[in-house]
Amino acid sequence: MPPPSPPTGGAPLEMPPNPDEPRRGFGMIMAICLITALLAGGVGGTLGFVFAVRGGYVDASRTQLGASGQQVPESTQRDPESLAGVAERVMPSVVTVRVAGAIGSGFVVSADGYVITNDHVVEGADETLTVSFHDGSTATAKLVGRDPESDLAVIKVAKSGLTPVALGNSDEIAVGDPVLAFGSPLALVNTVTQGIVSALDRTIQAGEQGGTTRYYAAIQTDAAVNQGNSGGPLVNGAGQVVGVNSVIRSVGGSDTEAGNIGLAFAIPINQAKRVAQDIIDTGKARRTVIGAEVRTGETAGGARLRSVQPGGPAAAAGLRAGDVIIKLGGHPLEEGTDLIALVRKYAPGAVVAVEYKRGTATASVSVTLAADVK
């Protein structure tokens, strides 16, 4: 018969004392206890000495958190060239624009209070708006002028001593350059996100159904941009504004469902600066034209001219109705919308190279763009 299995899960069984085993005397027990106490004291003293010498002694009455010997920096000031330094420098110039319960963004471009924002941010606003700054202060602002077709507007803040942003050159940026997007996405004021320039001259056609159609050759970025970022600055690594955040591409079925998926688009600052200066000087913006109408929605391997204005820039360069412009300024075109957007990127008077097809022949000309008469 096999022996029983030992019990599991409980305390070990105690064996009864052996009555025949000789007992230790009281004196011996005391001697053992005394020796044990002395040994414990000696070891403890030795270990305490070692820890004290090596700096590892910890008072048992206190708990030390964190590593010892680290120096706490006297200031949290960041290197001005770091991203944190750029954010610190730009943030005082960024404003939150509030219009009839809606929120957008903008940025100060002059010490006397001119602010660039998107046209769709101030759309529907009366003469007076409200803006708030990064420090929580607020001020009223007046609408100076709008240009719905370029989606740009200028307002003027009733506050002195403002710090304008530094404006960069959007023609000098390259794909892969780091950028920061500033603004108030989803009413979260003083928000900064980081990304890179994903593409240049991305032609955009935007606008609400039944409203103004907006065309521009945009800077594409993967910086997180959401509703409320509109009108805020897109800034390069040197702290210079290179674009105006304006529109996002989203998988949402409506504006209320739209959200960041890494496809955001900004109006180049060179175009925004030119339009803003026109608005400040004259109250309205000039629109750059090539003097021809195009067929939109047609895939012709370029922009097919439907008509050419007599005496206009295209006609003066020898272009005719039916010609298909395949490149403008070296940028390939796929259809008519591309031509409209890219032309408006340039200032009136700019001379651009145009490559076109007439029948099976390909030719090139230079076209001097002009301003339309409104």
TrEMBL record:
GO biological process: proteolysis
SUPFAM superfamilies cross-referenced by the UniProt entry: PDZ domain-like (SSF50156), Trypsin-like serine proteases (SSF50494)
Biased composition regions of type Pro residues, renumbered to the chain: 1-19
Alphabetized UniProt keyword annotations: Hydrolase, Membrane, Protease, Transmembrane, Transmembrane helix
Transmembrane segments: 25-53
Region entry Disordered, spans: 1-22
Domain PDZ: 279-334
Coiled-coil blocks: none
Record-linked PROSITE patterns: PDZ
MF terms in GO: serine-type endopeptidase activity
Cited InterPro entries: Chloro_Bact_Ser_Proteases (IPR051201), PDZ (IPR001478), PDZ_sf (IPR036034), Peptidase_S1_PA (IPR009003), Peptidase_S1C (IPR001940)
Protein's recorded name: Peptidase S1
